[in-house]
Amino acid sequence: MRLLSLIAVFFLWLLHFLPLALLSPLGRGLGSVLYGFGKERRRIVKTNLRLCFPELDEARRDALAKAHFQVLGRALIERSLLWWSSPDRLRRLIRIEGEEKIRCLIDAGTPVIMLTPHFVGIDAGGARIAMIFDSLSVYSKQKNKVFDELVLRGRKRFGDQMLLSRQDGMLSTIKAMRRGRPFYYLPDMDFGRRNSIFVPFFGVMAATIPGLARLARVTDAKIVLVTTRVLPGAEGYCVEIGDAWDAFPGADVETDTRRMNAVIEDAIRSMPEQYYWVHRRFKTRPDGEAGVYP
After folding, report:
1. Which contacts (CB < 8 Å, 24+ apart) does range 103-111 have?
2. Is the Cα torsion angle 192, 193, 194, 199 positive or negative in sign?
3. Within the chain, how many helices (H) and strands (E) appear?
4. What whole-number distance in Å separates Cα of residue 74 and Cα of residue 29?
5. pLDDT higher for 161 or 294?
6. What is the pLDDT of residue 62?
7. Are strands 94-97 and 136-138 parallel, antiparallel or unpaired?
8. Pairing state between β 204-208 and 197-201
9. DSSP 182
10. Full-model pTM
11. For residue 213, which of 202, 222, 203 has the smallest C-alpha distance?
12. Of 53, 73, 127, 167, which one has the greatest count of Cβ atoms within 10 A?
């Protein structure tokens, strides 16, 4: 297994020498293969799309699923750029809009939470942010040791990045934010019943971590939405930073978490094929409700 992993890593390393004009169609081709042979993940994606976009007919959802796998394939192959390409090349490939919004908050001594939904370009966005800010993020250990070491090294390539595990707890996060590190925060996955509440996501009750409101309350942080868009062809990526939220947190954690999900929904509607639909977002169900995945 280790030998196969090392061969795969060598192949990825070779790919990073190619121009994006060649990597992009290779990635889309890989995505088409994954769509064809990844029966289980294809079912998960189609289930998620059926639940979140019931207004679409089956043909349109199938087309959306195929487009998702193609852009996912691109993101997988183009990680080679994030791991080995020079900073100058990455600055050309990943443009960023609105970085001054975060800079102004940091300069004013205001803690910042970058709400970062799971779009497939999220790693490109994280790398570009790391070139500008000494930030904080949470790291999930990979099952494959070779790729775990590679992903970890890639996440720490730029600047003085601080990576915490989910087991480190909120106190370490709070301390880092108060020392001026903006938090690249990804709370939009199903992490199980523990510490989650059920709020709607595209009208479906979803187990959701309410940490955004709680962190904002404890640290007096401002929230900015950060999304990374995969651009067509060889255009690369665009990291888009929104304005700081007003009147957040409010008086009620559930209402605040509903607001977070609604913001994420709006972002998804602007590029629905690019959200991470291969994740079982509705795996944890409210008491008495049957599972939704085959």
Report:
1. 105/182, 105/222, 105/224, 105/244, 106/133, 106/180, 106/182, 109/180, 110/220, 110/221, 110/222, 111/177, 111/178, 111/180, 111/182, 111/183, 111/219, 111/220, 111/221, 111/222
2. positive
3. 11, 9
4. 8
5. 161
6. 98
7. unpaired
8. antiparallel
9. P
10. 0.94
11. 222
12. 127
Share of the chain above pLDDT 70, in %: 100
Looking at per-residue pLDDT, the higher value among 145 and 20 belongs to 20
CB-CB contact of 113 with 212 (8 Å): yes
Assess contact for 208 and 257: CB atoms under 8 A.
yes
Q: What is the per-residue pLDDT for 265?
A: 98
Number of domains in the chain: 1
Give me the mean pLDDT over the 56-83 stretch: 97
Beta strands in 49-105 (DSSP E): 94-97
pLDDT digits 0-9 by tens, 208-241: 999 999 999 999 999 999 999 999 988 999 999 9
pLDDT greater than 90 at residue 90 = yes
Q: Does residue 3 have a pLDDT over 90?
A: no
**Domain that includes residue 257, residue range:** 2-274
Does 82 reside within a domain?
yes
Residue 289 lies in a domain: no
| Residue 180 located in a structural domain | yes
Is 291 part of any domain? no
Question: Using the 8-state DSSP alphabet, how is residue 25 labeled?
Answer: H
Amino acid type, 1: M
